[in-house]
Amino acid sequence: MEVEMEELERVQTRILKRIADLELQLSLSSDDDATAERLSGILRSNGVKEFNFKVVPSDYYDRSLEARRDLLSAPSIHHLCKSIVLVNTQAQSHVIDCSNRNNSKYYVVVVQYTARFNAETVKNYLYSLNEGKVPKKKFNLRLAPEEISNNLTGFGHNAVTCIGMKTDIPVILDEAIVKLSPDYFWLGGGEIYLKMGIRTSEFIQFVNPFIFSCSTA
C-alpha cells in the first residue's frame, strides 16, 4: 500500500509539473510568437531561408546538454551555442560605442556550450586586426554586466541572440562552429524559452562575423 501511495505521489507530481509547464508556455506564447515573427522577418528580408524557432520547456536550463539536444533535434551537443556580450574594459577613451567594428567597445561572441571561451585569443586577434596601431594593453575583453547586455541587445539573460539587436554590435563566431557537420547550429532566439536554429553559411553571409578560434574544448 505504501509503495502504491509513493507511486501515486510521483504521478501526481509529474502531472502538476506538466500543468505548470503548459501554463507557462501559454503565458509566454504571445511574446515568443511576436519575437519569432519579428526575427523571422529580419532573416527572410536578408536572404536567410534555412532557420527554425522552437519553444522549450521551463526547466530547459536544468536539463543536461544531451536532453537539450534531443528537445531541439540537434545533430549533437556541440551544435548547441550561446551568444555572449563582451565589453572592452581597457578601451581607449574615445572608443565608447560600436561604430568601429575593428576597435569596438562591445562585441558579441557566439561559442558552443561544450567549449570554453578564451578571451586572450580575442585580445590577440583584435590587436592584429588593428595592425599594432592600438596598444595591446588597450584590449581586455570581459563579460558585460547583464544590465548593459540587456540595454545593448534588447534581450535578457538566456535570450540573447545576434539577430535583431537594438545595437549593431560586431559579432565574433568561433571557428569551431563553422567546422560543425551538418552546418546548422542552435542559439538563443530572443526570449528565454525560445531557441533559434540556423544554417551556418547563411548566418555568416547575413551577419558577416569575424571568424577565428576563440575557445578551447
From TrEMBL:
Chain coiled-coil ranges: none
Q: Name the Pfam families for this protein.
A: tRNA_edit
Gene Ontology molecular function = aminoacyl-tRNA deacylase activity
Gene3D superfamilies recorded for this chain?
YbaK/aminoacyl-tRNA synthetase-associated domain
Q: Where on the tree of life does the source sit, at the highest rank? A: Eukaryota
The YbaK/aminoacyl-tRNA synthetase-associated domain sits at: 78-191
Name the InterPro entries on file: YbaK/aa-tRNA-synt-asso_dom_sf, YbaK/aa-tRNA-synth-assoc-dom
Kindly list the biological process annotations in GO that this record carries.
aminoacyl-tRNA metabolism involved in translational fidelity
SUPFAM superfamilies under this entry? YbaK/ProRS associated domain (SSF55826)
**What's the protein name?**
Uncharacterized protein isoform X1
Q: Which organism is it from?
A: Spinacia oleracea
User: Which lineage ranks, top first, belong to the organism behind this chain?
Assistant: Eukaryota, Viridiplantae, Streptophyta, Embryophyta, Tracheophyta
Report the gene name.
Answer: LOC110792482
